[in-house]
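Appendix B, record 7
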Amino acid sequence: MSVLRRLRLVRPADQEAVMNQAVKVAFATTDSKTVNQHFGSAKGFVTYAVGADGASQIEISEFGVLAQDGNEDKLDEKIALLEGCEAVYCQAAGPSAVKRLLSMGVQPIKVSEGACIASIITDLQAEMTAGATGWLAKAMEKKNPTSMSRFDEMADEAWDE
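Structure tokens (predicted):
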């Protein structure tokens, strides 16, 4: 199995700094509009850079037809394509795929078939604005590390005894 097509979109220089602050998220899809694929047998991924103020499609990858057969070799190339992603949305993922994704820092997220990619991106942006939690908070911290840890902040706070 190999990638049939891989298209990386080039951004103008003025967008580069904004997108470097964004989280990179992939979606298992055949139509670039909905999440409609199982991770292991996905025919393609569409990848976005998502920031609180905008989102930009940055890559589209397509594969040949794959069965959900437990063949681990088909995962290698897919997992390699997700290098630098913070999350991948899919209908499902097998235990070994989940383990391998998590080990490289990619959070697999299961959604129902037909989940709208645009809606997921809107929800991510709303969470970024309101105060991210979970995997998104970790990803944002990695992109924009604060100079002080939460423990340092607590130590600097006034204590009433």
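Remarks on this record: The domain at 3-156 is CATH 3.30.420.130 (Nucleotidyltransferase; domain 5). The helical segments are 13-20, 73-81, 95-103, 117-130, 134-143, 150-156.
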